[in-house]
Design brief:
The chain is mainly α and 113 residues long. It is built from 5 helices and no strands. The longest helix has 16 residues.
């Protein structure tokens, strides 16, 4: 499956393949969307997906790791944390943003958090 995704997102888009940083951009995208109920009962699929996720989560983690994560889990945690606590921005970056707001005469309207 990963071969096919690489073909669609890299070769089909003309952005190459592999991980060579000197190669073309290597940032092609392949998105695939399925209407599950065209294949099977949606409730059954959701139930089995829940079982599958539980199976993955209860698998023994690799050496040096404390848990097994399924795709998107880490990103969902990061998003929840950032929504709760905000997004850290280095002071130098804030200074650059503030200077740009001054140049655009929007600093008084926008303000600095």
């Amino acid at each position: 499956m990963s071969f096919m995704v690489e073909m669609f997102s890299g070769l089909l888009t003309g952005l190459g393949f592999g991980i060579d940083p000197q190669a073309r951009h290597n940032d092609g995208v392949f998105i695939s969307v399925y209407k599950v109920e065209n294949f099977r009962d949606l409730a059954d699929f959701k139930r089995e997906m829940k079982e599958f996720a539980e199976f993955v989560k209860t698998s023994p983690p690799a050496s040096g790791f404390s848990e097994v994560l399924y795709p998107g889990e880490l990103e969902a945690r990061t998003e929840a944390t950032r929504r709760k606590d905000g997004i850290f921005v280095e002071e130098e970056t804030w200074e650059q943003i503030t200077e740009l707001m001054r140049e655009l005469n929007v600093l008084d309207v926008v303000g600095k958090p």
